[in-house]
Amino acid sequence: MNIIKHITTLVSAGRHPVSGEPRHCHNDSLAMTIGLDMAKSISAKHHVLHAGNPDNKALSEYLALGAGQIDVIPISDDTDVVDCLATQLNHADLILTGSRAESGEDSSLLPYLLAEKIGIPLVVNALAIKVKANTIEVLQFLPKGKRRHVTVKLPAIIAIHPLAPASLKFSYARQISGAIKTLLVPYTSTSTSVHKTQWQTLASIRKPIKLKAPENKSGHDRMMSAISSESKGGAVVNNGNSVEKAQVILGYLREHRLINF
Amino acid sequence: MSTSKAKRINPNRILNTTQNGIKRITLSAPEVAENIPEVKPLRTPTKPKNFYLTVTHADRGMLDDHAHQVIASAAILADKETTVVALVLGELREDIASLGADKVIVMPEFDYQVFQPDAELACVLKVIDSLQPSRIFMPDNMIGDGELGRRLIATQPSKSAATHVIEIDAKHVASYQAGGSLLAFADLPEIILLAANTAETNLPFVASAIPDEQLKSTSYTFKESNSDYKNLGMLPVASATIALEEADFIVSAGNGVSNVATLETLARSLDAAIGASRVAVDDGKFPRDKQIGASGKTVSASAYLAIGISGAVQHLQGIKDCRHVIAINRDNSAPIVKRADLTVIGDAEEIMQSLILAIAEAKQATSNQTMSNPVN
Amino acid sequence: MSIQHLITLLFWLATATLLAGLWRRSQLWRQGQSADFSWINLLAIPKRYFVDLHHVVSREPFIARTHVATAGGAVAALILVAINYGLMLYWNVLNWAILIATAIMLVGVFFVWLRRRNAPSRLSRGAWSRLPYSLAAFAIGLLVLSLPVSVLAGSVAVLALILLMAGSAELALGIGLGGPMKHAIAGLLHLAFHPRQQRFNGKLSTALKPIALDVITLENQEFGISKPSDFKWNQLLGFDACVQCGKCEAACPAFAAGQPLNPKKLIQDLVVGFSHDEKSSHDKNSKGTDAKFAGSPYPGMPIGEHSGSIHAPIVPSLIEAETLWSCTTCRACVQECPMLIEHVDAIVGLRRNLTLTKGELPGSAPQTLENLRQTATVGGFDRKARYYWAVDLNVKTIAPNIPVDILLIAGEGAFDMRYQRTLRALVKLLKAAKVDFALMGEYERDTGDTARRLGDEATFQKLAKLNIETLNSLSFKRIVTADPHVLHSLKNEYAAFGGNYEVLHHSTLLAQLAASGQLKLGKSDETRKLTYHDPCYLGRYNGETESPRALLKSIGIQVNEMERSGMRGRCCGGGGGAPLTDIPGKQRIPDIRIADARTIGAEVVAVGCPQCTAMLEGVVGNRPEILDIAQLLASTLELES
Ligand SMILES: Cc1cc2nc3c(=O)[nH]c(=O)nc-3n(C[C@H](O)[C@H](O)[C@H](O)COP(=O)(O)OP(=O)(O)OC[C@H]3O[C@@H](n4cnc5c(N)ncnc54)[C@H](O)[C@@H]3O)c2cc1C
Ligand code: SF4
Ligand code: SF4
Fold first, then answer.
1. Are B249 and B222 part of one and the same domain?
2. Predicted complex ipTM exceeds 0.85
3. For A209, which of B167, B235, B242 is closest by C-beta distance?
4. How far apart (Å, rounded) are the C-alpha atoms in residues B339 and A233?
5. pLDDT digit string (tens) for C438-459?
6. In 3D, which of C456, C547, C467 has the Cα closest to residue C510?
7. Does any domain span residue B212?
8. What pTM was estimated for this model as a whole?
C-alpha cells in the first residue's frame, strides 16, 4: 500500500555566481524533478514550497522546470526560514531538498535544522529514491564512485546529491502556464532558536590563505621554500630515457600524494 | 613522520642519483644528501582542562589528507593550555602524533561505509558531554564527517558554527557564500567544518597521541533497535566504471595514443578512470561518454594524466577544475604544456610502458615494506 | 465516336480529374494554419517560374534544358489540346502544332530517361522511375494521334489512345493521388503563395519569423510545430512541390558527415505526415509510413520504421529529434532547391516545439540556453570580461553621451583567446583608417542568434528586446561586427522587434574604407596558396561574398576557390547550435571543408567568422592555417610602417 500521499520539495532562490541574475538553484531543481517523477509514479500529490519573496524571478524557472505551482510563504529577510517552513510541512510524508543553496550562507544546514525542528529522520546525498512499504530506500552517494543503499522510516527529509541522475527540462510553455501562489500565513515570529553566526561578506573574491604553523626559519630557508613550494608554471622534462621519465611522473604523483604506493 | 628539512632545488640538474643507484628526477622536493631524521619538540599542554575536539572518519585504518589537515589545524590553533583530542570514527592504524593530537579516541565500530548517523551522533554528543571542548573541528567531506558535523550543529543551537570553511586562523574563519560569489568572514566559531586544503599538516612539533581508553569505553551507548535508519550495504563498483565527473584520477587519451590496450593497462594499474579527447573518440577508440571537453564532460579529478593530447581550448575547458595535470606529449610546444603542472616529452607508448613497469615495481616495494613492517 | 471526340472526352475527363484531385489535395493543405496570402500572386507565376525558379535550375544546364523541353513541350501541347480538342475545333494546323510540341517534349523525355539510366544517388527512384515512361507514353500517344487521320491505321490509333490515356493518367491523377506529377501544380501554386514573398523581389529573405509568445497560440497549447497541421497551409503546399531531385541532400553538410539528416527526406516525411489522417479513416493503419520513400535514408536510420499523420506529433514517430538537431541552419538546401522550398523554417519550427514546449535538447544545448538566460553570454561568462582583450588598445567604449560613427560589436568570440587576435587586428585596421569608433563594452549582450536557431524563441526575443533598448539609447551611425551571426541577427532579425540598424560585416566596411582610400593597405608578404571560406551567415544569409575577395585581391593575394564557394559555399559545421547538440555522424563537417581546401592544395584558409575559425581550427592533423581577413589585412600595415 502506498503510504506517501504528499511529497513536498523545498526550493530556494538561486542567483548566478557571475551575473547575479536570479535563477533556479540546480540542486533544488534536481530534487524537484525527482519528487515530481516519484509523485507521478505512485500517484501522490507533489508540492513545491518556497519561503521568501514571491516576486523573485528565480521562482518562474522552477515553473519552467515543471513545478506546476509554487507555494510561497512570504517572509522577510530576518525571519527564520526553518521555523516557517516547518509550519507548512505537517502533511508532508516525504520532504525533498537540494544539497546546497546558492544564495545566503549556502551552509547546507537547512535540511538538518528542519529535520531537528520537525523531529523526523534525514538522509543526505541521495542519488535515487524508491518507496518500500513504510520506508524509503535511498541510494546514497559516497566519493570515488562508491554507493550505498539505506532505508529510512517515513516521514523523512531527503536531500538530493548534485550528481543525481535527473535531467532538467526547461520549458517556456510551462513557465508561463504555471502559477505562483502566496500562502496566506503571514509568519511573524523572528525565532532565536537557532544560533546565527555573524558573517561579514567581502565582495571581491581572493584565494584563501592556508593555515600554517608558525615556524622559526632562517631567511634562507624561507627563500628556499618559496622557490620550491607549489611552483605554478609547469615543469617540462625533455631529457632522459623513458624509464627516467616514468620515474619523474611517479615521483610527482607521490610527492602530491596522488598515489599511495 | 615527515622528516624533510629545507627543500633545495637545482634548476640546472633535474636528475638525481638515489642511494641505491637509480637515477631519479624529483621536482620540488629533491632528496637531501644528509637524510637524518629531524627530532621535533614534543608539545605538552600545560593545564589539560581546556579541550579542542576533532572528529574524523578513517578509511581502512587511515585518515585522509583532509582529516590530517583538520587535526593539524586544531593543533596549530590550540594554545599552550589546550589539549587536542582526536575522535576517530572507524579503525585507526596510523600514528597521528605528528599531526598534534594529544589524546586519541578510536571508535572502530563506526566504519564510514556503514550508515548509522544516529549512533555516531550519540557517540559524539557523549564525548562532548564528557570533555566540554571549547571548539570542535571536523572535515567538511563526503565520507560522513560533513554530514555528522551538520547533524551536530543542528542539535546544538546554542553553539556558533561555520561550514564550508575555506580559510581559518586564530581569529576568524572564511567561507564562500551566495553561490561562490562572496567571501564571508566570521569570528572563529565553536563548531568548524573545514573544507579540504585549508591547513598545512607539516608541524614543527609532535604530540603524544595517547589513546584515551576510558572515554572510548563509555562513548558507545546507542541502541540500534531505536534507529530510523537501516544500512543495506555498499554497492560494488570498479573504478573503470566510475563516471568521469566523479573520478579522482583520470588517465586520458588523445590522438597521440595508438595503443588503447596500453592505456587501459596503465589506467588499471593507477586505479584510474579513462577519459579521451574528441579526436580519440571520433576515431572510435573510446565511447562517446568518455569524451572530455567543451562538447563532452567537465571533470574535476585531483590527477589528470593527459597522454597524446594537444590541449585544444575545447579540451582544456573540460579539465579546468583538475588539480594536477600531467602531460605526456612528444611536442613541447603543444598548448597542453602550458596548462600542465608537469609535462614529460616523449613517445606516449614508450613512456606508458615504462610507467606501467615503474608502478608495478613501486607497488611491489610498498607491499614488501608493509609486510615486514605492518604498522607504520 | 471518332478518335477526335474520344480525345475531347479524354481531355475533359482528365481536366475534371485534375481539378477534383487539386480540390482534394488543397483540402490537405488547408489543414494547415492560416497565412497571409494574395490571389493576385497567381498572376506572378510565369515571371517567378521563368526568372526565380529558372535561376536555380539553370545552375545545372543539362537538367534545365531537359526540363524546358519536357515541361515546355507538355504545357504547350496541353494548351493546344485544350483549344483544339477541348473546344472541339479539330483544326489540322493546330494538330501540326501539337505534333511539334509533343516532339519537343519527347526529346526532353528522352533526356529524362537517359539521366535516369545512371541517376545520381540523390534522385529518388520508386514512382519517379516510371516518369520517363509515362511521359513518353503521353507524348508518343498524343504525337501519333495528332498525325493526319489519313496516315493512321485504326489499330495504331487505338494503341496511341491507350498510351495517351496512360500518360494522361500520370498527369491528371498526380495531384490527387500524390504522384510525382503533383509537383507541377503544387510547384506553380507554391510560387504564387510562397511564405517568403520577398524572395521574388530579388532580395534575400533569410530572417526567421517571430512567433507570438505571450499567449499560447495553438489550440493544443503548443509552441512551434508539433504536428503537421501546425504548419501554415502554404508551407504544406510548399512541401508538396518537392520534386525529390535531392539537390538539398547533395548540398547538406550534415548528410555528408553521416549525421541522421537528409533535408529531402525531411520534406517527404512531412508530406507523408500531412497527407494521412488517422481520424478520418476507419483503417487503423492509416498513419502514413515512410516506407514508400525511394531515396537516401537519414544516414544510420533505416527506412520504413517511421510513420505519422496530420494530427499526430511529428517527433519522434515520424521524424527523430536527432534529425532536427543535426541541422547547422546553413541554408545550403534552400539555396539549391529548384522548388524554392524552405527547409530551415520547417526545421526551426519543429525545434521550437521541442525547446519551448518540451524543453528537450541534446548535448550542451540546455546549458548554453541557461547561460544565455542567466548571463546573456553563450559560455556563462562575465559580461564585463568581453572586452578585456582591448584594455591595452586605448579604444573608447560607447556610452549614451558619447556619439560615434561606428559601434564595434564583438560577439561571443571576444571571450576566446584565438578570436581576440582577429578582433585586435580589426581594431588596428580601424585605427589605421582613422575611423571614429567605439566598443560596446559591458552593454553588449549576446544577440540570441544561437538561442533562436535552437528554437528558444523566448530567450532570443528577450535578448533582442534588451539589446534594442540598449542600442536605441546609444548614438552611432553604423554597427560593424566580425561575427556574421551577430550581423544576421542585428541586421535581418531585429527589425521585427523595432531595431533597425545599418550593420556591416568587418569585411564590408574595410572594403569600403579601402576603396575610398581611407584605409591604406600594403601588399601582403603571404606567399602561401590561399583560399577563402565563405561563412554561411555572411554569404548565403547576407549575400556578402565579394568584399572579402576584393580585399584579399587588393593586398596582392590570389584567392584560389575551393569546391563550393560563394553563395553555394560549404558549411563549416558551426551554425545553428550544431556544435552544441553535437549529433554523432561518421565524420565531422569541418573535416569535409578542410578536405576541400587540401584538395586544391591551399596552405591558408582565410575566414571571416569566429565560428568558422573555431570549427576549422578544430580539425587535427596537418591542415592549412586559418587566418581571418582582418589578420591578413592588418599584417600589411606592419609591413608599411
Ligand atoms: C565546437 C568544438 C567542440 C569541441 N569539443 C571538444 C571536446 O569536448 N573535447 C575535445 O577533446 N576536443 C573538442 N574539440 C576538438 C578540439 O578542438 C581538438 O581538435 C581536439 O581536442 C584534439 O584532440 P587531440 O589532442 O587528441 O588530437 P591532436 O590535436 O591531434 O593532438 C595529438 C597530440 O598528441 C601528440 N602526439 C602524437 N603522437 C604522439 C606520440 N606517439 N607520443 C606522444 N605524443 C604524441 C601530438 O604532439 C599532439 O599534441 C572541439 C572542437 C570544436 C570546434
Ligand atoms: S526539397 Fe527541393 S532540393 Fe530537396 S529534393 Fe525537394 S525539390 Fe529537390
Ligand atoms: S540548413 Fe544545411 S544542415 Fe540544415 S538541412 Fe539544410 S543543408 Fe542540411
1. no
2. yes
3. B167
4. 8
5. 999 999 999 999 999 999 999 9
6. C547
7. yes
8. 0.88
